[in-house]
Design goal:
Strand order of the largest sheet: 2-1-5-4-3
Strand content: 15-25%
CATH superfamily of the largest domain: Histidine kinase-like ATPase, C-terminal domain
CATH architecture of the largest domain: 2-Layer Sandwich
Order of helices and strands: HEEHHHHEEEHHEHEEHEEHEE
CATH class of the largest domain: Alpha Beta
Distance between the termini: 70 Å
Number of strands: 12
Radius of gyration: 40 Å
Number of helices: 10
């Protein structure tokens, strides 16, 4: 290994460089070879003696920091460029960390240079001894990561802006839900007041029923959006709470909604559209069917089946799921497609009511998306 040069006496005019015989084996060939190695290094590199005097500087260092060999070689590191390398963190690295540990990698330093401006650098330093261990040099590699840090800051800023936009979206969604629920509450209250003010008993009852249904819709809406930031939901318990809210739409009708079947954790991405499907089908059964309404979930190795049935009178003979049967049926079909499921319809008969069954996998299908 090359032997470092001895520090020149104060006032000496000799410039210590890699070509000095004492520093690199005593031959011109060895010195030239060592200088070629230093110049080949892509990142800026300095070779220092133990007094931190520059023995050699790579061409990449000279180009990056816009200095000449005459201004660099043989000078103390801290005096280079009128003291622009007199950096407190560099003092700590070269005077304490490297002498004690022998090596330091990835030591980050920020500094303002007169010629090239603000720079962020990663310093890698290593203390190297000759074969006899009597002389040492310090290799100081300098990696300019200014552009990389600027890119990281830009990415952080973009990420912050994205988070702000998402937060604004969430806030707008909450504001919309809040306004919708307030509007439903206002409509319900107005209908209730009108029912009490009217002198026609039949009209008063119908207004009261309508007010209760609007209030129930508000409760259903609130229940469905409880899951907005939850990953999974136990569907039987979720459907039970949902049907409790829907039962408010029954008013004085003596009918029951029963939720039964398996307990199963399903993803919220499935749970929310399934909740809307239950809402639509139970509402239709309340409107057109009779008897107990049953909501049943069955789970198997391949997936789940959700069925909603009542006790009659069944669907008309000309009913077709693919036909233009109304907005409610179109909503159900759209939700089933969103979760990658399949809708099966049993028309039933006057003695046994209709049954709607949704078959779906344990995970959302390829075309599934949040509702």
């Amino acid at each position: 290994m090359a032997t470092p040069v001895r520090s020149p006496a104060p006032g000496a005019s000799r410039v210590a460089a890699l070509s000095d015989h004492d520093a690199f084996g005593g031959t011109e060939g060895a010195g030239a070879f060592a200088q070629a190695i230093v110049d080949t290094v892509r990142e800026p590199l300095l070779v220092l003696d133990t007094d931190l005097r520059v023995l050699a500087a790579s061409r990449s260092f000279l180009a990056a920091f816009r200095v000449t060999p005459a201004d660099t070689l043989g000078r103390l590191l801290y005096t280079l460029g009128d003291g622009q390398w007199d950096i407190p963190k560099l003092h700590l690295l070269l005077e304490k960390i490297v002498p004690e540990q022998g090596v330091m990698e990835g030591y980050e330093v920020e500094h303002e240079f007169p010629e090239i401006g603000q720079r962020t650098m990663l310093l890698n330093a290593r203390k190297v001894f000759d074969e006899r261990g009597s002389h040492a040099t310090i290799l100081l590699g300098i990696e300019d990561i200014t552009a990389a840090r600027a890119l990281e800051r830009e990415k952080d800023e973009l990420s912050r802006q994205k988070d702000e936009l998402l937060e604004q979206k969430v806030m707008l969604g909450r504001e919309f839900d809040h306004r919708l629920l307030n509007s439903l509450q206002l409509i319900s209250s107005l209908l209730s007041l009108q029912s009490r003010a009217t002198k026609n008993p039949e009209a008063a009852e119908q207004l009261s029923i309508a007010g209760n249904r609007v209030a129930a819709l508000g409760r259903v809406h609130r229940r469905l959006h409880v899951l907005d930031h939850v990953e999974t939901v136990e569907f039987k318990a979720y459907a039970s709470r949902l049907c409790e809210d829907l039962s408010g739409m029954l008013h004085r009708e003596r009918r029951a909604i029963v939720v039964e079947g398996d307990e199963a954790e399903i993803s919220t991405m499935l749970g929310i559209p399934l909740g809307f499907i239950v809402n639509e089908l139970v509402t239709n059964s309340i409107k057109y069917g009779t008897g107990t309404i049953t909501v049943r979930l069955k789970s198997g190795p391949e997936g789940h089946s959700l069925s909603i049935s009542d006790e009659g009178p069944g669907l008309p003979e000309d009913f077709g799921a693919s036909g233009p049967r109304g907005l409610g049926m179109k909503i159900i079909q759209s939700l089933v497609r969103q979760i990658g499921g399949e809708l099966q319809i049993d028309r039933g008969n006057p003695a046994r009511g209709a049954c709607f069954t949704v078959l779906f996998g344990r995970q959302p299908g390829p075309g599934a998306k949040a509702v």
